[in-house]
Write a structure and sequence with these properties.
Helix content: under 10%
Strand content: over 45%
Largest sheet: 6 strands, mixed
Length: 78
């Protein structure tokens, strides 16, 4: 099965301004942290792999969203 045979995964309902609690999994080109919400990619400015952050969505596209770090999340909440 190649990528064209896989069913399209609907993007979660993320609107501009939505605050998410995320765990950063990696770093993208340009230094943005990468997190996933149900397979949907979220790029977070100012974060590093292993960070748990609260991030506010600033831009949403069909296959990804961009967000800014609002605060470090408390580890007990994840």
């Amino acid at each position: 099965m190649d990528a064209s045979d896989e069913p399209a995964r609907p993007a979660p309902t993320l609107k501009k301004g939505t605050v998410l609690e995320l765990e950063i999994e990696g770093v993208a080109y340009g230094g943005k942290g990468v997190a996933k919400v149900g397979g949907y990619v979220v790029f977070v400015n100012g974060s590093l792999p292993g960070d748990r952050v609260l991030a506010r969505v600033t831009r949403r596209k069909k296959s990804f969203a961009e967000a800014v770090k609002a605060a470090k999340a408390e580890s007990e909440t994840m």
